[in-house]
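Propose amino acids for all 231 sites.
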């Protein structure tokens, strides 16, 4: 069975993607900071018949990242690495003139530095895979200028650039930065708690990720809504 590592997998998009992959025969290594919720997610995902290893921890911890890759090795290797774990930098979001620099550092550490660290840890196994792929979960805030989204958006823009360069440097892999678009997630509620406009469920964009895995287009940045619509 193919093996995927998914960070930030206890809820939202990470959980939805884990369930979809498990239903299609993938074995999984799941990460999140909250042990209780991660175990609940792992139990549900394992119900699809997948082998699931759930490792609670912080992706900024090098030892934790090494543990995730070691767990995937035990399952057979790494065929897919999904960097989905994210930090906002401030909750709720604030203007740049109010953004705590410690918060910005945290966003960069989680969203960029840890993502690269995990890729580097997993690269030997990804290179051995017949269809190795890396997915970095991006955001339109990394490409557009939205008030209060500056710190988070800067981290996602940096992650997009890392993904683009990795795609050039590792031509044997597929490296996709995916902008999922608006979703109803806990992250968004934490970012903008006063915004109660309806948003799509994370499950609605999972077909975009599955399409990438099935069709394996060139490395690059993709918008999930366009992939779901078949464009």
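Proposal:
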């Amino acid at each position: 069975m193919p093996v995927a590592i998914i960070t930030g997998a206890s809820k939202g998009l990470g959980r939805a993607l884990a369930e979809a992959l498990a239903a299609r025969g993938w074995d999984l290594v799941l990460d999140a900071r909250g042990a209780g919720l991660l175990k609940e997610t792992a139990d549900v995902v394992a119900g699809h018949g997948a082998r699931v290893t759930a490792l609670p921890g912080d992706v900024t911890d090098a030892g934790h990242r090494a543990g995730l890759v070691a767990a995937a090795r035990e399952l057979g290797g790494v065929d897919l690495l999904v960097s989905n774990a994210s930090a906002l930098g401030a909750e709720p979001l604030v203007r740049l003139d109010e953004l705590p620099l410690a918060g910005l550092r945290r966003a960069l550490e989680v969203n960029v530095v840890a993502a690269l660290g995990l890729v580097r840890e997993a690269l030997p196994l990804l290179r051995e895979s017949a269809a190795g792929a890396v997915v970095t979960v991006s955001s339109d805030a990394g490409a557009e200028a939205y008030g209060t989204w500056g710190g988070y958006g800067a981290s996602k823009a940096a992650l997009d650039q890392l993904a683009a360069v990795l795609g050039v440097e590792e031509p044997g892999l597929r490296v996709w930065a995916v902008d999922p678009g608006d979703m109803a997630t806990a992250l968004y509620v934490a970012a903008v708690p006063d915004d109660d406009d309806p948003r799509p469920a994370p499950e609605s964009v999972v077909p975009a990720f599955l399409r990438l895995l099935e069709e394996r287009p060139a490395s690059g940045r993709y918008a999930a809504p366009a992939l779901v619509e078949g464009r």
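The mean pLDDT is 97. DSSP finds eight helices and seven strands in the chain.
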